[in-house]
Each structure stands twice: as C-alpha cells, then as structure tokens.
Amino acid sequence: MLKRIITAIVSIAIFIPVCIFSDTIVFPIAISILSFIGVYEMSKCLGYHKNFVLTIPMYIAALGLPIIRYIQTLLGANN
C-alpha cells in the first residue's frame, strides 16, 4: 500500500508542472503516461496484470488516446 501512495505522490508531482505547459505536446504525453500508471496500478490491485489479453489493450488505450485526441484537435476535428 505504501508503494501505491508513493506512486500517487510522484504522479501528482509530475502532473503539476505539466499543467503549466498545457498548450504544448507535453500535456498529452504526460496525461498518457499518468493514465498508463493509473491503469497499471488498477490492474495490479485487481490482479489482472498477468492477463495480457485484457491488459495490453488497456495499456495501448491509456497511452494512445490522449495523443490521438491532441492530434485531432490540431487538425481541427473538434466534433
């Protein structure tokens, strides 16, 4: 449990400076990394981390969706 609390503190410490750079590509990359950490911790807590059929798509979605959304925003596809 202490390890998860330390992970949360480090994640928050990384997230606060990233908010300062929210208009750049740094923000979606950081959100991707933080969402990956969150999905990993949740799968580890629930015992799903060894079920690769379930966890690999979750990891890919956690890493890819924030960046894909940022690219869509750059291209003007806000709808």
Features:
single chain; 79 residues; mainly alpha; 3 helices; 81% helix
Overall description:
Helices cover about 80% and strands about 0% of the residues. By secondary structure, it is mainly alpha-helical. The chain is flat. The model has no long low-confidence stretch (mean pLDDT about 85).
- Share of residues in strands: under 5%
Oligomer: single chain
**Overall pLDDT:** 86
Largest sheet: none
How many β-strand stretches? 0
Tell me the overall shape: flat
Order of helices and strands: HHH
Helical stretch count?
3
Please give a quick description of this structure.
The chain has 79 residues and is mainly α. The chain contains three helices and no strands.
Topology:
Elements: H1 2-20, H2 26-46, H3 52-75
